[in-house]
Design brief:
The chain has 225 residues and is mainly α. It has helices at residues 8-19, 33-51, 58-89, 96-116, 118-127, 131-163, 166-189, 211-224. The protein is globular, with a radius of gyration of 19 Å. It starts with 7 loop residues before the first helix and ends with a helix. 36% of the residues are buried.
């Protein structure tokens, strides 16, 4: 029997997603949130498990597999109320379902892209035993996946902006809001790779600190030294 992860239906979902057609087309009738959630859960778990395989610890792989879809889902859920408010203030409330379709498609694209980049993660891990290198490599690959998500969002917003230029402001608001929230959530949910010198745990000690405060302090310490 074929694994559910590679069922024909799921392959069709991915094709529709990447080509912005079928249920993921910009002019589709409904918002395909169930399909988007399915893709985020399946591909997010696979990519997260590979990211957590740096020291081949099964528990860390399981934790990281859960964290990637959790990161994508929580960041979307936290941003959506504010995104709706932005659209309402701009007078774009009637187009919100179309904007929502683009957001869900973008998040699913991030998960699919991360899974497709998993072989590169494995290559990095077998090429170097440096934990710092693993962190940087995964950061770069996640940035590429996020960029792919923005490309998908751009496809959906192209028609919206052509119809009403105010959608360009709404899209920029989403990008700023999402990046701000996602960075803080990723910081709180760490570790994803898992430091081999530390015990495996779901949250790192002191996880829920402010990522931006830590960065500012690090920069200040760097210039103060």
């Amino acid at each position: 029997t074929r694994s559910a992860s590679f069922s024909p239906d799921r392959v069709v979902y991915v094709r529709h997603l990447l080509l912005a057609e079928g249920p993921f087309a910009p002019d589709a009738r409904d918002v395909p949130w169930k399909r988007a959630v399915l893709l985020v859960l399946a591909f997010g778990f696979v990519s997260g498990a590979v990211v957590g395989a740096f020291d081949l610890r099964p528990l860390q792989m399981s934790f990281s597999g859960l964290k990637v879809p959790l990161l994508l889902a929580l960041s979307t859920a936290i941003c959506l109320p504010n995104f709706y408010a932005v659209n309402a203030v701009l007078g774009l409330r009637d187009d919100f379902p179309a904007a929502l379709r683009g957001v869900f498609a973008a998040q699913a694209t991030v998960a699919v892209t991360l899974a497709s980049l998993a072989p590169l993660v494995v290559l990095c891990y077998v090429s170097s035993s440096s934990y710092a290198f693993a962190i940087v490599a995964n950061g770069v690959l996640f940035a590429l996946a996020a960029l792919a998500g923005q490309v998908t969002l751009g496809v959906h917003y192209r028609r919206l902006v052509a119809r009403d230029p105010r959608h360009a402001h709404a899209r920029r608001a989403w990008l700023v809001l999402y990046v701000f929230v996602a960075i803080q959530l990723a910081w709180g949910l760490r570790p994803f790779v898992g430091d081999p010198s530390l015990a495996t745990r779901f949250f790192r000690e002191g996880a829920w600190t402010n990522a931006y405060v830590v960065v500012v302090r690090a920069v200040a310490a760097l210039f103060g030294s």
